[in-house]
Specification:
Blueprint (H helix, E strand, L loop, with lengths): L13 E10 L2 E7 L2 E2 L4 E5 L6 H8 L7 E10 L2 E2 L5 H7 L4 E4 L3 H4 L6 H13 L3 H14 L5 H4 L9 H13 L5 E5 L7 H18 L2 E6 L2 H7 L2 E6 L2 E7 H6 L4 H8 L48 E3 L2 E4 L2 E3 L8 E3 L3
Parallel strand pairs: 4-9, 4-10, 7-8, 8-9
Antiparallel strand pairs: 1-2, 1-3, 1-5, 5-6, 10-11, 11-14, 12-15, 13-14
């Protein structure tokens, strides 16, 4: 059982307005507005290439090489992150905001022991001495379910299993009791049993540490299990958002419905070799060659002629629920893409 930290800010809030990111002249994220409230889990969901990871990395000033924020602002606990210097962001990252990356083998330093690389982070942010730092790291390793923590401190990443590495990365994110954890596909490349354990751990951390989580995933099953709210991304834009209950009960956007329909269900029997499980036809657009109008219209079975000419805006479709689709009565604007 995890123990409650000494202190944490219960009013943690991430408020993003119109965030846009580009690689050179090619936009990859366009005007997204995710928000995360205190002790809330928001899931960004969509196919690979939809802009989810670039969005989450950009929030922390960790956008990939060649990417730059071209518009919008990111507010966190009342401070504008997009106006901060690299040094200011460095003091914030790992302390109030922390990241759990997709591949733990790549995010851990292979030439440093677990104790050394986690200890450096805690000592830098807290100014703690060697003994206190070692105690803190060992304590968190135990809290995330790592046995014989004192021995693990002396081990290198290659001596740990994939699931153990991800637990180390979660412990690293918790070192300074952050208000927000950004988790980018944290169960990728892990077997099903370990995936379930990691998701259970993240959920327990949220409750025990009173932490908010922004979880990036392509798996609607993970969304159903973890999310309070969901934002569905396609081709760099959010096309539907709302509470997980509202979106799952009444998905408004054809892309959201297609994602849900293509997710296997345990209450449905599929005949061996059958084609009962629908797939989304076509492929996501090349960011450098986007179609006009609604980005999803070339793959959409419900597309109208106007869908190729008009770019819909997000508009309310119910309490806590918004969608960007012309067939759902959305506002429209000229496509500037």
């Amino acid at each position: 059982m995890l123990s409650t930290p000494v202190s944490n800010d219960p009013e943690a809030l991430l408020d993003v307005r119109g965030l846009s990111v580009a690689f050179g002249h090619v936009p990859v994220v366009m005007g997204v507005d995710p928000t995360v409230g205190a002790q809330e889990t928001l899931c960004l969901v969509g196919e690979s290439g939809s802009g989810k990871s670039v969005t989450s990395l950009s929030l922390m000033g960790l956008a990939p090489s060649g990417a730059q924020i071209t518009g919008g602002r990111v507010m966190f606990e009342g401070a504008e992150l997009t106006a901060m210097s690299t040094a200011q962001l460095g003091k914030l990252r790992g302390r109030r905001m922390a990241m759990v990356f997709q591949n733990p083998a790549h995010s851990l330093n292979p030439i440093l022991t677990i104790g050394k690389q986690l200890g450096e982070i805690y000592a830098w942010h807290s100014g703690a001495g060697r003994g206190e730092t070692r105690d803190r790291v060992g304590h968190l390793l135990r809290q995330v379910g790592i046995t014989d923590a004192s021995s693990r401190l002396r081990q290198f990443p290659h001596e740990l299993s994939g699931g153990m590495k991800q637990r180390v990365c979660i412990a690293r994110a918790l070192l300074c009791d952050p208000a927000l954890i950004l988790a980018d596909e944290p169960t990728t490349n892990l077997d099903v049993t370990i995936q379930a354990q990691i998701l259970d751990l993240l959920d327990e951390i949220k409750e025990t540490f009173r932490t908010s989580i922004l979880l990036v995933t392509h798996d609607m099953g993970v969304v159903a299990r973890m999310a309070d709210r969901i934002s569905v991304m396609y081709a760099g834009r959010i096309c539907e958002s709302g509470t997980v209950r509202a979106v799952f009960r009444d998905p408004q956007h054809p892309y959201t419905r297609a994602l849900l329909d293509s997710t296997p269900r345990i209450d449905t029997r599929y005949a061996p070799g059958s084609r009962d499980l629908p797939a989304i036809g076509g492929r996501p657009p090349n960011p450098a060659q986007r179609p006009g109008g609604c980005q999803f219209h070339p793959r959409c079975a419900e597309a109208m002629p106007d869908c190729a000419a008009r770019l819909p805006r997000m508009s309310a479709s119910g309490p806590g629920h918004a969608v960007s689709c012309l067939r759902r009565g959305s506002q429209i604007e000229e496509d500037a893409a």
